[in-house]
Write a structure and sequence with these properties.
The chain has about 290 residues and is of the alpha+beta class. The protein has six helices and 19 strands. The longest helix has about 60 residues.
């Protein structure tokens, strides 16, 4: 062989002693493995990543010795000691952090309710959590943002209350799905720019735009939770109409009854007055005759 690379020492014929040292990656990244990092291989050309794993069957540019290489998660490659070059869609020191990105159009900008280009950019590079728009909510001692990037360009949006068909069937709870304004949607719009009707089993929580595979690309929209008067406005309108019709009919009926009673009472008063007048006339006539 021609020599040992990356500071390696030729300790014997065709034998290199490669430079390795204890990794300090764990001091910066909690949870990182501890071990030796540096260089390996017959000619010390193979970088070692403690956050990766050794693959004896890989053949890549950073393993010219043909002895395999150290790989990183999700298709990443170890290109230098403890340094991973991640595949598209992944980032982080170990290539285990997915990336989610979107491009804002006119509709999304309206839904974000901001003209601040910096905030729009923050949304485009982090469309799941929305932490630059809304503070995290504490629930049972834990902080929750609107969602998390769980796969490259795929958000898992937070759901506060969900519909569960199994619990509904077995226990009669969590039976209500997300509210839809199906009946009156053609004549009114109850949605704010940053709201939407739920499309899944989530009754209360967040959703966003979706891709062709129906994965969420963002969590910037709130599932609408209307007030009771809005939620049951159609029922209220129907009941109100029925009450109005019944009330109108009852009013007409009572008015006619009262009018009839008034007329009968008036007739009775006239009869009574006529009887009184006849009595007085008769009394006067009898008195004159007797005199």
């Amino acid at each position: 062989m021609s020599g040992c690379l990356n500071g390696g020492i030729c300790s014997n014929k065709d034998n290199c002693y490669c430079i390795q040292t204890v990794s300090v990656l764990w001091m910066k990244h909690k949870g990182a493995d501890r071990g030796l990092t540096g260089w390996s291989g017959t000619d010390c050309s193979m970088p070692v990543c403690v956050q990766g794993y050794y693959d004896p069957f890989c053949f890549i540019d950073n393993s010219p010795g043909g002895e395999g290489c150290f790989r990183c998660a999700n298709g990443g490659s170890c290109v230098a000691p403890d340094f991973c070059e991640c595949a598209p869609g992944w980032t982080g020191f170990d290539c285990r952090t997915p990336l989610c990105e979107v491009v804002s159009d006119v509709v999304i900008r309206k839904q974000l309710k901001t003209l601040d280009e910096e905030k729009v950019h923050e949304f485009e590079i982090d469309p799941c959590s929305m932490k630059n728009f809304y503070p995290a909510v504490e629930i049972d001692g834990s902080l929750y943002n609107r969602g998390n990037c769980t796969q490259p360009n795929a958000c898992t949006c937070y759901c506060q209350t969900s519909f569960n068909i199994h619990m509904c069937s077995n226990n009669g709870v969590l039976c209500g799905g997300p509210w839809q304004d199906n009946i009156l949607s053609q004549i009114r719009n109850v949605l704010e720019p940053n709201e939407m009707f739920g499309t899944r089993s989530c009754v209360s929580g967040y959703e966003g735009i979706v891709d062709e595979n129906d994965y969420f690309l963002s969590c910037h929209l709130s599932i609408v939770e209307p007030m009771m008067t809005v939620r049951y406005s159609f029922n209220i309108g129907v009941i109100g109409s029925i009450v109005a019709v019944v009330g109108s009919g009852l009013y007409v009926y009572i008015r006619r009854r009262l009018k009839r009673r008034y007329i009968l009472a008036k007739i009775e008063r006239r009869k009574s007055r006529r009887s009184s007048e006849d009595s007085i006339t008769n009394a006067d006539g009898n008195a004159f005759t007797a005199y």
